[in-house]
Amino acid sequence: MKKVLVIHGPNLNLLGRREPEVYGKEGLETINNEISREAKNLDISVDFFQSNSEGEIVDKIQQSAEGFSIIIINPAAYTHTSVAIRDALLAVHLPAIEVHLSNIYKREEFRKKSLISDIVIGQISGFGAYGYILAIRAAAKQIANLG
Ligand code: DQA
Fold first, then answer.
1. pLDDT tens digits for range 93-117
2. Which terminal CB of the chain, N or C, has fewer other CB atoms within 10 Å?
3. Is this structure's pTM higher than 0.85?
4. CA distance 81 to 35
5. Which domains does the chain have, with CATH numbers?
6. 100 a catalytic residue
7. 129 C-beta closer than 6 A to ligand 1
8. DSSP β-ladder status, 45-50 and 3-8
9. Whose CA is nearest to atom 7 of ligand 1?
10. What's the gap in Å between 101 CA and the centre of ligand 1?
């Protein structure tokens, strides 16, 4: 079975409690359960990883070169700062989908720049937790296209 890795960046472990008016009321565990349910419907397998540390996210991306077909990533604040995460994604040659709960283009100026938007297949931004459901469906399509 094809495997998808979902990576959640810093502070996403606080979802539900963290600025719920921006990021929604659902906690990360609930969101992951919803993604798992959708993945099961789509007949794909999914693993989750959350870290507040840039280095750990880079390590995880490097390790995912084997065993995963596609990465869904919300790098959170590192979206706007991390050349290291961008370089790791380029190094493993795995297709990736970028997700943001909030619409990063409707917020502060510094959030409008993503350092990975030009190297991912596509970006989903502004649909809250539903963005991950859209992403897992897009991942399933991508996997089917890859054959
Ligand atoms: C975020 C947007 C980022 O700007 C922010 O730093 C986050 C979450 C989102 O999902 O909307 O932590 O990636």
1. 999 999 999 999 999 999 999 999 9
2. C
3. yes
4. 27
5. 3-79+86-146 (3.40.50.9100)
6. yes
7. no
8. parallel
9. 76
10. 7
